[in-house]
């Protein structure tokens, strides 16, 4: 059984996508939440006695307390990485839109898989867009691909919320 502190402000996903009932989150707060999440992942990857790959980093798994402090949650599919290994080979689990395509094709989980997923969360924070959107053209339905295309076409600032 896991026991969490009471998280009064719900999930980051709610703040980004269902903000009608939640206070608006400023860019400064969004960047602080991103930094706190990055610190938590860095701890899991580098400072934990046995490195941990979360495998399901997404805005729904980032909880926000009274001060909008980020708390990374849901370690149900996390994996311990033996100290003498750089990756583990396993059945890939995660959430579509956040899942590292390289991890999906090789079945090898590394800390880089979490970093990719965190990158999607970061883009989600900056744009207010969902990781998968069926309203966009087929080749841009994935937020990461959409973001890369926007950068290449100098449309980045029109994407930012």
From TrEMBL:
Which GO biological process entries does UniProt record here?
Answer: cell surface receptor signaling pathway
User: Where does the Protein kinase domain lie?
Assistant: 1-161
The Swiss-Prot or TrEMBL record annotates one GO molecular function as: ATP binding
Q: Which UniProt keywords apply?
A: ATP-binding, Kinase, Nucleotide-binding, Receptor, Transferase
**What GO CC terms are in its UniProt record?**
plasma membrane
Q: Which Pfam families match?
A: Pkinase
- Protein name per UniProt: Putative wall-associated receptor kinase-like protein 16
Organism equals Cinnamomum micranthum f. kanehirae
């Amino acid at each position: 059984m896991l026991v969490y502190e009471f998280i009064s402000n719900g999930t980051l996903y709610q703040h980004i996508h269902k903000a009608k009932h939640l206070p608006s989150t400023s860019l400064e707060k969004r960047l602080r939440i991103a930094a706190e999440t990055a610190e938590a992942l860095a701890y899991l990857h580098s400072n934990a006695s046995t490195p941990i790959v979360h495998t399901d980093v997404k805005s729904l798994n980032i909880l926000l307390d009274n001060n909008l402090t980020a708390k990374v949650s849901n370690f149900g599919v996390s994996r311990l990485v033996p100290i003498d290994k750089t990756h583990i080979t396993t059945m890939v689990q995660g959430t579509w839109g956040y899942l590292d395509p390289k991890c999906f094709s090789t079945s090898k989980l590394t800390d880089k898989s979490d970093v990719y997923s965190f990158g999607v969360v970061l883009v989600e924070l900056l744009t207010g867009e969902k990781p998968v959107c069926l309203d966009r053209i087929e080749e841009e339905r994935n937020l990461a691909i959409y973001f890369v295309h926007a950068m290449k076409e100098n449309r980045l600032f029109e994407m930012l919320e």
